[in-house]
Amino acid sequence: MTALPAQKVEMIPIDRVTVVNPRARNKKSFKEITDNIARIGLKKPITVTRRVEAGGPYYDLVCGQGRLEAYAALGQTEVPALVVTADPEDCLVASLVENCARRKHSALDLLYDIRGMEERGYSSAEIARKTGLTMEYVSGVARLIGNGEQRLLRSVESGIIPLSVAIEISEVEDHEVQAALARAYERGLLKGRKLLMARKIVENRRRRGKGLKPSDMGVHERVSADSLVRAYREEAERKRSLIKRANATRDRLLVIVEALRRLRRDDRFVILLEDEDLATMPQNLAERLRPQEEG
């Protein structure tokens, strides 16, 4: 980026600043920014580039969207800004880089920003160099994006599933996912609570799809009678299915127990077992058969 830093901070009108790469803000973190600025002031000016138009000047935001919006929320009409010289493409890339390089960012932010840089023709190596992320990380995220794996991408960003494991899950068939988790466990990549959380994530991915719905991203629909009834019916259906499978398993076991009980009363079968040195059986099974025989 060929931008020249300004020599001084200027006060510019907030209503003349255009955010070229807008991004959603977490309400809690935005409130913290606003409260902090209200208490101690703005510690770092925003960065903009000047755009000359009739009735101008106007400005394009390079970085500092949160600070800009916080200033506006506090009722200010002007904001301190460093004005740099750069073309629109450089400004947009700088904004994307700033978002990617944040120490805390959501999976959706990363998806949006890296996708934006990819769409502008930047390779994984170039994105890695500009953002400070590793090339392996950028390439991995790009593969998840290409597969539409928003749910897995968010689990990577939250530190639940390692990137390499998420990629492996995204590139195998549904019936092979559990095997992928088992391999991750054997390699020590998923243990304890994280393994349980990973299993829950892949189950949600199987049932609800790879992408994230508004309710998954913190935008919850208003609870209504219909939504409660729908949720109740889905849960009831899930439990009926579990009960049905449990009953089928119990019936199979009862058939096996009854078959073994009858075979033990067949002298020829017992003699055959003794000849093969198989006259004994596991204690638990023997105890399970004993009450039936004695009754």
TrEMBL record:
SMART domains: ParB. CDD domains: ParB_N_like. Residues 10-100 form the ParB-like N-terminal domain. It comes from the Bacteria. InterPro entries: Chromosome_partition/occlusion (IPR050336), ParB/Sulfiredoxin_sf (IPR036086), ParB_N (IPR003115), Plasmid_RepB (IPR011111). Transmembrane segments: none annotated. Gene3D superfamilies: 1.10.10.2830, 3.90.1530.30. This is Plasmid partitioning protein RepB C-terminal domain-containing protein.
